[in-house]
Structures are given as C-alpha cells and as structure tokens.
Write a structure and sequence with these properties.
With 225 residues, this protein is mainly beta. 11% of the residues lie in helices and 66% in strands. The chain has an eight-stranded antiparallel barrel with strand order 1-2-3-5-6-7-8-10. A hairpin with a 6-residue loop joins β4 and β5. The longest helix is centred in the N-terminal third of the chain and has 21 residues. It starts with a helix and ends with a strand.
C-alpha cells in the first residue's frame, strides 16, 4: 500500500511538473485581453485590371490602371485570449468619409474615346485576426476580413456606381505598454468585386469593367481597456 501511495505521489508530481512546463501562465495573451479603441491611417495603392469595350463590341482598351489614396479613421474591437500565448482579435474599422481617386481611364477610338475617373469613398471593414504573443508585450497576427467601399464614376459616362465588397488579407504586429497604449503596424491587400460602367464616351452600349485590387500599409495607435 505504501509503495502504491509513493508511486501515485511520484506520478502526480511528475504530471504537475509537466503541466507547469506545458501550460504556463496566461501572461502573454492576457496582456492583450480586453476591449480596445484606436485611430488609424493607411496608404492605399489601387490597381484596377479591366477592359473598355466600345459600342460595336470591340475592345477599345484593355489593361491595368491605378492610383494612390490615403485614408484615416477609427477602429474598435476586442481581444479574446484562447491560450497562454494565443488570442483572437475581432474588430471593425472605418476608413473615414474622404474621397480619393483610385484610377483614371483614358482609351478608345472614334466616337467612343472616353476619359473616366473612378473614385472611392467611405471604406470600412470588419475582421478576425488570430494572434500569437511572442513576448510579454508584442504579438504577431494574420487578418481575414470583409471590406466595403463606395464607388463613384466621373467624366465621360452617364452611369452611376454603388458600393462594392471585397476580401481582405493582412499580416501585422502589435506592441502594447503596461498602461494599455498600443501601437500596430500592418500590410495587406483587398480584392474587391468587379464593377461595370455603361454609357461610356457618349455611347449607350460602351462598357468599362474593372476588378479593383488594393494594397495597403496600416498604422494605428490605440488604447486597450
């Protein structure tokens, strides 16, 4: 009986020691746990791959066009710890109400020559970001999300554009101080759905179609409660 008790105690001690090494305290992920708010700024580089088809069905122009569009806004979310170093961020971000020119298209021939400006405004996105705390106050993450953008066409077109949605991917780092202030950097891309413009260059049958791809660099400063 005594031998059995000693064996059980030995196994129990070994199990506790192993558990101590395998599952240390939640200090890594708990540093980030909680609700947060932040202000952010982005530099966006937009490329639109598309075609301009004339009224008689010929391809008047085909290729890629693009532009730069800085944005700034706010972000809110929550960090949920799911392990000693692993946590998940769920958030929403608003890119502000400004308008930027994403692309300028000029092409065609004859009466179908057209100059069209594609402008974007009111970007927003919601996302989930699995994160790993690599030090007590730093983490790396990958971001998956859904983005929305209002589009407007100006120039030689009678058509109107509405909002488009897109898939977001990103990777970044977060550094947090003991008082809750944090600093986040991120790079990523958003692939938006295709848009279609009709009535281009004075022809009711002329069409411009495009697939916007936006690459971005993101910087935010915020506070975790």
């Amino acid at each position: 009986m005594k031998k059995l008790r000693n064996k059980i105690c030995s196994y129990t001690l070994a199990l506790l020691v192993s558990a101590g090494f395998a599952t240390p305290s939640f200090s890594g992920s708990s540093d980030f746990s909680g609700i947060f708010v932040a202000g952010h700024a982005e530099l966006n580089v937009a490329v639109i791959d598309g075609t301009h088809t004339t009224g008689d069905g010929d391809d008047a122009a085909k290729g890629s066009i693009g532009g730069f569009a800085p944005t700034a806004g706010y972000e809110v979310g929550v960090n949920l710890p799911l392990g000693d170093t692993f946590f998940v961020t769920i958030g929403y971000a608003d890119g502000g109400g400004g308008t930027g020119t994403l692309a300028k298209s000029k092409g065609g021939h004859g009466n179908n020559d057209a100059e069209v400006y594609i402008k974007g405004s009111d970007p927003s996105w919601y996302y989930i970001a699995p994160s790993i705390s690599i030090f007590d106050n730093s983490a790396i993450y990958v971001k998956l999300g859904q983005a929305s953008l209002d589009l407007k066409a100006e120039g030689d077109t009678t058509a109107t554009l509405s909002g488009i949605d897109g898939d977001m991917w990103g990777i970044g780092t977060t550094t947090i101080a003991g008082n809750g202030l944090f600093f986040k950097t991120e790079a990523g891309a958003i692939q938006y759905d295709q848009f279609t413009l009709t009535g281009v260059g004075g022809s009711a049958n002329a069409i411009v179609e495009g697939n916007p791809l936006v690459g971005y660099g993101h910087l935010s400063i915020g506070y975790k409660f």
